[in-house]
Amino acid sequence: MSSEIIYLVRHGQTEWNRDGILQGQLDSPLTDKGRKQSQAIGQYLARILPGGLAGVHMECSHLGRARATTDIISDIIGLDRRHLSVSELLAEFHLGEWQGFDKGQIETRWPGLLAERERDKWHFQIPGGENYSLLIQRARAWLDQKPKAPVTIVVTHQQFSNALRGLYGKLTPAETLQLVHKQHCFFRLHNGKIECSYTETEASHCD
């Protein structure tokens, strides 16, 4: 996908994001704030995408929060549902047995494992889940696919977005682990360059 344009969007805030609960590949509903974030990104994209949405395809993770965000954005930009697809490759980092718990609960149930993970976050594999090496493999598999259109809007999750941008930008593992994707921001990937845009609903920065 080197010459094509990718707009990389993170789903809006969810109830578990708000409450500090790790979601992974479980789900919780978008909050009012999350719906407003998705609406703001849709409105921004509507201003910058080509008229009539010629050559635009939208692809999202199969998880509910990404699909809910996709529904909001696609309605705002007026994308025909024939140009929308779902991919399990775009799912969030699988947090295994830690999904559905906050960090305090994880420390109680698995004492010391959070600290062990921090010492080698790239290779540490959460019980029943993934590590970043495995996540990168999924991101590479998605990136290596033939694009369905010259412009792809991708609605995914923070850690998958970080992995994809790390691959696209040829970053080291340490650099990739420093990345963030705030929910009021989206990224434009084109010709090997990564640019961040943000809506005016929140603080005007992406990092």
Task: Please tell me about this protein's structure.
The protein contains eight helices and six strands, in the order βααβαβαααβααββ. With 207 residues, it is of the alpha/beta class. Helices cover 38% and strands 16% of the residues. The mean pLDDT is 95. It has one domain: 3-Layer(aba) Sandwich (Rossmann fold), CATH 3.40.50. The two termini are 25 Å apart. Strands 3-2-4-1-5-6 form a six-stranded mixed β-sheet, sandwiched between helices.
Walk me through the topology.
Layout: E1 5-10, H1 15-19, H2 32-48, E2 56-61, H3 64-77, E3 84-87, H4 103-109, H5 113-119, H6 132-143, E4 151-156, H7 158-168, H8 173-177, E5 185-190, E6 193-198
Parallel strand pairs: 1-4, 2-3, 2-4
Antiparallel strand pairs: 1-5, 5-6
Structure keywords:
8 helices, alpha/beta, 6 strands, 6-stranded mixed sheet
